[in-house]
Amino acid sequence: MSSLQEVTIDNNPFSQWNIPDSLKDCVALQTFSAQSAGLTGTIPDFFGRDGPFAGLVFLDLSDNFLEGGLPASLSGSSIENLLQIWANGNSFTGPIPDLSHHDQLYDVNLRDNQLTGVVPPSLVALPSLKFVNLTNNLLQGSPPVFKDGVAVDNNVDKGRNQYCTNMFPTIIYTAKCHHFVKVWMLNMKGILTLERMNKLIQFMQVK
């Protein structure tokens, strides 16, 4: 299996099955596509800096029964040429991981899950991003603003995302993520204007 480069098993009515640990032996893997293939359980954490999939290009896990978090190790992965992640139509929870390492990533589809937290600035800033779909999650904070040329399906009016135009909850959430919400609240003075709130959010995102 060490020479296997592609696994494509889309649209097969398999009984529910877990991604096997033996998949890590496929060190030459470039494409793993298992759309609507009965996958269940969690994603094994194969994606760390010492992971086996340095050449992975396409990952499609859409429309299955997967749960748990998206692997945080994607942020420090050995994968260098990842172009596409489709994980839509599952029951993934937790935050969207930092994907800034994947500067060739052009297509991210995470819709129809239960992802929470704010949309990370690292996703918005991906230099090669062309398509992104975040609709129907439980995301919070300000609606992300992607650069011109990115096709976005991120419907603010439909689905379960809880984006807010009131900036104060966004500040509280962001400050909490950075572990200084109590200090900030104790030192808050004066009128909390929209301009001040925007500057504070920008500062915390840089931090």
UniProtKB/TrEMBL annotation:
Keyword Kinase (UniProt): no
Keyword Glycoprotein (UniProt): yes
Gene Ontology CC entries for this record: membrane
Record Pfam families: LRR_1
Annotated Gene3D superfamilies: Ribonuclease Inhibitor
Superkingdom, taxonomy of origin: Eukaryota
Protein name: Uncharacterized protein
Organism for this UniProt entry: Vigna mungo (Black gram)
